[in-house]
Amino acid sequence: MESAGRLDVNHQLGVNELPFIVRWEDTLCTRCGRCTSVCPVKAIEPGVIEKRVVESLGPVPLPTTVRKVVSGVRQVTDIARYCVGCATCRQVCPNEAIRPEWNPAHKFAWHVNKGGEPHRRGGRRNDPNASTLDRLKFTRISMLTDPALDAGRHEFRVRTYLGRNLPAEDLPLRIQGNDLIADGTPYIPPVREIFPIRIGGMSVGALSPNMWEGIAMGVAYLNEVKRIPVVMCTGEGGMPPRLLKSPFLKYFILQIASGYFGWDEILHAVPHMQCDPAAIEIKYGQGAKPGDGGLLMASKVLKLIARIRGVPEFVDLSSPPTHQTKYSIEEAVAKMITSMSMLFGFRVPVYPKISGTKTALAVLNNLARNPFAAALAIDGEDGGTGAAYNVSMDKMGHPIASNLRECYLNLVKLGKQNELPLFAAGGVGKQGNLAANAAALIMLGASGTDCAKYVMQAAAGCLGDERNRCNICNTGKCPKGITTQDPRLYRRLDPDKVAERVVDVFVSADKELKKIFAPMGRSTELPIGMSDGLSVDDPAVAERLQISYAC
Q1: pLDDT tens sequence across 283-333
Q2: SS3 call for 213
Q3: Which of 434, 527, 447, 533 minimizes the C-alpha distance to 131?
Q4: For strand 252-256 and strand 279-283, is the pairing parallel, antiparallel, or unpaired?
Q5: N or C of the chain: less Cβ packing under 10 Å?
Q6: Residues sharing a CB contact under 8 Å with residue 524, sequence separation 6 or more, in sequence order
Q7: How far is 57 from 77, CA to CA, in rounded Å?
Q8: Which domains does the chain have, with CATH numbers?
Q9: Alpha helices of 396-518 — where are they, by DSSP H?
């Protein structure tokens, strides 16, 4: 027994092997217990510590060494409860007595695959460098030949279209006198006018009820009060039934993915819907984990989520990598787009979402021939997700800038660049430059962009970062209450405050887009594909994107 105990100690990790070391100041601590009670992963715990203290007491104060037993805070070295560096303990400490510090000499990467399971990340990619989007500059400034506009006083219409835009000669309409007459049985594709920055798919279940409700309230306020037509994608997992039957459904894009979670509720609600949804998004891939399906871990499948998704509680919900009833992209696109269009009487735009890969062009060429395909959404590698393996996020995928540019130039060759809109995602706002990244993608050929992680960080103060700080979204232990289904955690989040911040984000993005487009003399139409307005300081990037090189 004694020998086994020594071997067990030998196989334990030390504090110096962990990514974060918790620094605790004995003299400042009041032993209130707040830090240990709020730690989401239980990485610190109250304990009894034996200390060596040098004292000088008595009438002749000579230094003497004594040993004292005191209460304090101790860091746990169990790999299952390692400190994630969220610093929630520091936020609640009244005296700044405790803080996590990044340990650059850690050996965490060698120990995380406990039980043979690869490490999952709940946050962004491990990429400390700025993306290509953040290196692009807007260098076309109109002056005398094409006067620039006043961004503060000029009337702007920063809007884009979600839906196939047929050229005038292809519309089944003719003008007779002052009347517009339909020829035969016309089919005019449904089109929505929306704000060019959409909120990407984050499901009920991946997000906490308070977070999802806060974003939804913000979207409704932006549309109803601010008159900024922002739309939000539901992600895979359906919607609360009361929202499906509300007049606010028109601001949401319903996503159907390979797991079909939540679609029983949606189908049952169709006869009772007061309005149509903004669109239907058929998810075939995600940029953060291309070729892999979604995953909602059992710890997050509580009663509310299980009821919405129509599954038992506390079971892992994994989506297949593809829609299992389809054998090819041609069949999948044709059958699913047509069936979803029929469900809503061909009144709702239906489009697929794919991950950014070298096969994106094949999907695009197929969509260009399908009259019912409303758009194509491409998700690049820099997107974040709540349950991706670390190796997928760091080593798989395609950057969005070059993938989007290839697809747009291919549409130009087909003569359909103004007909089939492209929506780009993946790292938009990664460094905080939401409007600038969106404008750059628009000028590379996108009709609009998606952002999701940026909304989480801006609206609720997500603590994760590129250095593996926090990033435990997939575990259901989010210290901010953003990505958890634990009521003790998500009650920390005020949905009203989340809604206020969502409104702030998009109002400021609207103003910044005007500031970017005004010097180019654009006020009523987005500069989609206007690549001569972009420059970059890297000749290789300039050649790849076919934009100008400036240094």
Answers
A1: 998 888 888 888 888 888 988 899 999 899 989 888 888 887 777 777 777
A2: helix
A3: 434
A4: parallel
A5: N
A6: 156, 157
A7: 37
A8: 13-117 (3.30.70), 133-549 (3.20.20.70)
A9: 400-414, 434-444, 453-460, 487-490, 495-517
